[in-house]
Design brief:
about 300 residues; alpha+beta; Ubiquitin-like (UB roll); 7-stranded antiparallel β-sheet; 4-stranded mixed β-sheet; about 25% helix; Ubiquitin domain-containing protein UBFD1
């Protein structure tokens, strides 16, 4: 019902305005109890509907999984759906990255994941978990467990070119010198150690095999002075510990410029090996009676597969 005297063209007032007009005008007759209750009920319904239309939509509860996005380093949303995942701590350049990866990922796929997190190309990565992680084996096969620490060592291409060019030249010169000389095991300086014979506690060798580094130190070997020596590879610190009866030298692997080795004549299942600690041959630290199955693993761990010698 339009209010009296309302100009043409104006919208008809709402229910609230009509209620106010009726309240101020004297009714034609008094309302009985039933009519009064009905009128009050209609007004309450209209008022409640107006309030509901003004209220905002309810916010999603904070604990609702749909309202929360799971974000982790380099992890694709839904990438592990239907797969058994394992929590890993990727440690590179003193920085830790928490990631989830499928337990059946290969070492090669893990390198791709690390590349997405750090920007470090897979070819430049040295990935270690109880030794170098094989690219063709799954994390399940090498018994990686949830919460495991994966150590990554490597540099960008620009860093390698800037730092290692002089180093490569030193190694090439050293190789050229070695080729001119007689076999190392025949040289006088080495013969005096080798002539002592094989140490009684030397570790067993497996000729023609290649194995990952054991979880215990390599022991039962001689150094240049004929004393007992052991090698401990501290992968988390990226260090090689050379221990003797007198002391233990803790060497950053990045400081070792080269690793050379040669089978021992008559005992080809064992090698003599040297770690080059400086620019000249005088800096070689010699170790004798290294089991042949660990030679490649030692070189890969110290130098990394991405270095070309």
């Amino acid at each position: 019902m339009a209010a009296a005297g309302a100009p043409d063209g104006m919208e008809e007032p709402g229910m609230d305005t009509e209620a106010e007009t009726v309240a101020t005008e004297a009714p034609a007759r008094p309302l009985n109890c039933a009519e009064a209750e009905a009128a009050v009920g209609m007004a309450a319904e209209d008022s409640g509907a107006a309030r509901d239309s003004l209220q905002p939509a309810p916010a999603q509860p904070p604990g609702d999984p749909a309202a929360q996005a799971s974000v982790s380093n380099g992890e694709d949303a839904g990438g592990g759906a239907g797969k058994e995942l394992v929590d890993l701590k990727i440690i590179w350049n003193k920085t830790k990255h928490d990631v989830k990866v499928p337990l059946d990922s290969t070492g090669s796929e893990l390198k791709q994941k690390i590349h997405s997190i750090t920007g470090l190309p897979p070819a430049m990565q040295k990935v270690m978990y109880k030794g170098l992680v094989p690219e063709d084996k799954t994390l399940r096969e090498i018994k990686v467990t949830s919460g495991a620490k994966i150590m990554v060592v490597g540099s960008t291409i620009n860093d390698v070119l800037a730092v290692n060019t002089p180093k490569d030249a030193v190694q090439q010169d050293a190789k050229a010198e070695e080729n001119k000389k007689e076999p190392l095991c025949r040289q006088k300086q080495h013969r005096k150690v080798l002539d002592k014979g094989k140490p009684e506690d030397v570790m067993p060798s497996v000729k023609g095999a290649q194995e990952r580094l054991p979880t215990v130190p390599l022991s039962g070997m001689y150094n240049k002075s004929g004393g007992k020596v052991r090698l401990t590879f501290k992968l988390e610190q990226d260090q090689l510990w050379i221990g003797t009866k007198e002391r233990t030298e803790k060497l950053p692997m990045g400081s070792i410029k080269n690793v050379v080795s040669e089978p021992i004549e008559g005992h080809e299942d064992y090698h003599m090996m040297a770690f080059q600690l400086g620019p000249t041959e005088a800096s070689y630290y010699w170790v004798y009676w290294v089991p042949t199955q660990y030679v490649d693993a030692i070189k890969d761990t110290v130098l990394g597969k991405w270095q070309y010698f």
